[in-house]
What we know:
The strands form 5 sheets. The protein has a 5-stranded mixed beta sheet with strand order 12-11-13-10-14. Strands 1-6-2-7 form a 4-stranded parallel beta sheet. It has 2 domains: 4-126 and 228-289, D-Maltodextrin-Binding Protein, domain 2 (3-Layer(aba) Sandwich), CATH 3.40.190.10; 129-224, D-Maltodextrin-Binding Protein, domain 2 (3-Layer(aba) Sandwich), CATH 3.40.190.10. Strand 11, helix 6 and strand 12 (174-178) form a beta-alpha-beta unit. The radius of gyration is 19 Å and the shape is globular. The protein is built from 11 helices and 16 strands. It is 36% helix and 20% strand. The protein is α/β, with parallel strands linked by helices. The protein has helices at residues 10-16, 20-24, 26-33, 59-75, 92-97, 158-168, 181-189, 200-209, 238-254, 256-265, 282-289, and strands at residues 4-5, 35-40, 43-44, 48-50, 56-57, 81-86, 103-105, 118-120, 125-127, 129-134, 149-153, 174-178, 195-199, 216-218, 227-229, 232-234. Residues 35-268 form the Solute-binding protein family 3/N-terminal domain. Keywords: Signal, Transport. Belongs to the bacterial solute-binding protein 3 family. Residues 1-24 form the signal peptide.
Amino acid sequence: MMFRQTFLPVAVLAAIGLSSAAAAATLDKIKSTGTLTLGYRESSVPFSYLGADQKPVGLSIDLCAAVAEAVKAKLAMPGLKVAMTPVNASNRIPLIQNGTVDLECGSTTNTADRQKQVAFSVATFVSQPSWLTMAASGISDLAGLKGKTVVVTQGSLNYALAQKITKENNLDLVFVQAKDQAESLLMLRTGRAAGWFEDRILQAGLAASAPDPKAFKFLPGQFGGFDYYGLMFAKDDPDFKAVVDGAIRAQMASGAFAKLYEKWFTQPIPPNGQNLSLPMGEALRARVAAPSDALTP
């Protein structure tokens, strides 16, 4: 599928100020404008990131392509245009709320708090957070981070969890925030942070594509429960949710989702041919067998 990329200033888009009621009628909006606008992340490997040709690729991008085909069929608009707009952790929810983006194709965690602002598809991935350090630092466990500066990605839910961890373990951590996952990894690599707290899969994806992938080390331990990723769109829009969920459910039922997972998690991926070597876990297998947007297993 060919996508048309658009880059518009967020301030200008926010000024358009579509009402929540108008934004909720997503299918009507798409039909009237003749365009479905997808939001993508630039460094959320392997879900949504820029490939070798600087065009968005990843598991979530492929799933959104399937949704786009379902929207075309639903509206009987085979010539429907699909536009791509970059989003980040800070603006992804506002851009959904004001109608700039119809569907976010990223790595966003579905939570009860976020459901007050937006809606989510059935789960497309199950993750857990972890601490990543540099192997040469000599830090071997959580206690080794005591008193050090650590980085979290701006807008990440893991910031609150990291603060809870430092309080419960008397770590006295100093927090800095990076604009996206790529900058978080850069801060770790350049010594501006001793550790990075983020969803393990996002860390693994970027570390694997770094010039020195063996230079990183995951700290042992479990630091949180399961996080369920989903495609994100406007809340209170059951018609659009039905189309989105229907497309994903069809992918899961046909076996196409399993093939997409293998493509992005167990085979070489762009831009450098790295292989994450991460077979599908039992928690995600359960969701593929019985698709759901529930927040608990």
